[in-house]
Structures
1.
Amino acid sequence: MSKIKTKTSERSKSEAKAKAILKGAMKEFLAHGYAATSMDKIAKTAGVSKATLYSHFGDKEGLFNAVMQDLVKDKFQTVMGLQKPQSLEQDPKIVLSAMATRMLDNAQSDRTFQDFVRIIIGESGRFPELAQAYVSNLAKPAIETLTQYFKSHPELKLDDPEATVRVMIGTLVYFVMLQEMLHGKDILPLENERLVNTLTDLITKHQD
């Protein structure tokens, strides 16, 4: 076997172990929370040695961050979709409505993501670095991307694009938390379409 094939094979094995570790870590974090999950438990669930676990991710905080990044990397592009050239040419109301709808549909249908956010919120008092990692990996990129989009559309006549972004994302996040994570959809029912239409109307009402 050539050196190139050997390296490729080793890299494939390493990637397979990393995926197994991330899957096992997610299972343990969701089952027991961050504080009660040990690296020993994760190694056993993932079917790897503890040494392999540490060599790939360093420590439990590093592994938790890796699990979070793995969870949100595809979600961010799927939900935002603002880097596509056509998004700059389409009517902002259509683009924003589609983005908000995707965000709600995605968050409401992904129970794993909801449960993971519960862990972050529930343990952020003892482990603020977990919440900060969430902000850095998901909230900050989303706010920056959407702020740049708003700035590229002066016809919206927004006095403060970044603050408008915070209002938009905050409304959507709170809606998901209230309806799904706090089980309020039967107590305070509201169709996604009504929320999205009202929110996008407010943002685009001064559009030329």
Note: The mean pLDDT is 88.
2.
Amino acid sequence: MHNQSLVSEVKNLIITSVNLHHLDPAAITADTSLREGGLELDSVDILEVVVAVEQQFGVKINDAEVGKQHFRTIGTIADFVEEAKSKQ
């Protein structure tokens, strides 16, 4: 189960970092994909999200495969941040 306040924080960070203010935040959930069928972000947008998450939460994504695994949905990002912070 995702931490709902962290999901909300990640969602707001993504909306701000890649300028998705035209979308209804209520329509974006933990299961919303960053790519096809969801927010439709391209690779540049995803990179901006990665940088924003690293800066906001003080976590580091050191491996592209790890990034691909964790940056699929809003919820997988929130889970990654929660796990990374618990190891600090």
Note: The chain has one domain: 4-86.
